[in-house]
Amino acid sequence: MAKRLMPLLNRVLVEKIIPPSKTNAGILLPEKTTKLNSGKVVAVGSGYHDREGKLIPVSVKEGDHVLLPEYGGTEVKLGEKEYHLYRDDDILGTLHD
Question: In UniProt terms, what function does this protein have (predicted)?
């Protein structure tokens, strides 16, 4: 479903990663530890044009894991899944293993 929505300009479509609320042993984790503002980039726009007309590309690509702000973004529901649209400037950074 997410492939049908292509973000415009410098927008990034992100699927938030929801960490498990229970360990493999069955221990319930507190709500604070399950809140991590990260997500996987599903689709990106082409970028935006500066004052001279040069195209400034988006700094992330599809498949990147990114750190997101606590608030912001536009919630989009496609089918049963929820996605969020962010501007490229709003993304705080990329996460690497």
Answer: Seems to function only as a co-chaperone, along with cpn60, and in certain cases is essential for the discharge of biologically active proteins from cpn60.
Report d(CA 7, CA 91) in Å as an integer.
Answer: 15
Residue pLDDT, tens place only, 1-57: 555 778 888 899 998 887 666 666 767 666 654 456 889 999 998 888 889 989 989
Least confident of 17-21, 54-58, 71-75, 90-94: 17-21
Phi/psi at 3 (nearest 5 deg)? Answer: -70, -15
pLDDT at 88 over 70: yes
DSSP state of 97: -
| CB contact set of 63 (below 8 Å; sequence gap of 6+) | 40, 41
Q: Residue length, the chain?
A: 97
Cα–Cα distance measured from residue 55 to residue 73, given in angstroms and rounded to the nearest whole number: 23
Pairing of strands 74-78, 81-87: antiparallel
Q: Which two tokens stand for residue 1?
A: 């479903």
